């Protein structure tokens, strides 16, 4: 059953999360009907996911056979041990995270100018410090590479974002877990406590 208290409806929240993440998981179906999940870098632009790679290869073959795909991006923030909530039972153990899941169809991008814009966005995302000539389809130094590389657009038919930060907890348990995270102060615990305050409905009143 989908927990509606974890759903994120604000589009900008989802876009910001996708802009901060560089890795996602592509779900395809082989010609034999077998599922496959491939981790890869991506960018999200104008409501679509993009990735690049060789014109040959298994995932390209699968996309040509079955264009219906899924794409998932997830980021774990903190593990929440059971003893934060119960001194004996294991049941309350969980994790707090953000995720976006999409289902749609994949298509090869043919236009060199769009390829250039997508790959330039990749560089801005993965190499923000610069140190390269910007990718432009009109630049003769890039035209050959743009023709040789495959750029794939995933057009979502459905998207769902889930940001889980204790929205289902009672106020008392919520404050206790938030306090325990600040007390433990390991990894992303403080950031997780801040996310709890941001997304908890009774803190938004």
TrEMBL record:
It comes from the Bacteria. Pfam families: Pyridox_ox_2 (PF12900). This is Nitroimidazol reductase NimA-like FMN-containing flavoprotein (Pyridoxamine 5'-phosphate oxidase superfamily). It comes from Paenibacillus barcinonensis.
